[in-house]
Write a structure and sequence with these properties.
Elements: E1 2-3, H1 7-18, E2 27-32, E3 44-49, E4 54-55, E5 72-73
Parallel strand pairs: 1-2, 2-3
Antiparallel strand pairs: 4-5
């Protein structure tokens, strides 16, 4: 998946640690460079993307294009 703002992954990591996990490592296919600090960092990432709306490879746009074999970005206005 994509590490965007990081709130969901931060909550999931915190919950797993509360449940007794000794260590939680996060791996993401892609991470958006938002220019701001996030509440969680990925331990492993495949791609760092600019701050654009992306889809494909499991990520959708408007409920579409999730199964595309590559990552695409919507045109900027």
């Amino acid at each position: 998946d994509i590490l965007d703002e990081g709130h969901t992954l931060a909550a999931a990591k915190e919950r797993l640690l509360e449940m007794g996990a000794e260590k939680v490592e996060i791996a993401v296919l892609s991470e958006k460079d938002l220019g701001d600090r996030k509440p969680v960092q990925a331990d492993y990432d495949g791609l760092v993307l600019t701050n654009r709306y992306v889809f494909g490879m499991g990520m959708d746009a408007y409920g579409l294009w999730r199964n595309l074999p590559d990552i695409y970005a919507l045109k900027e206005d």
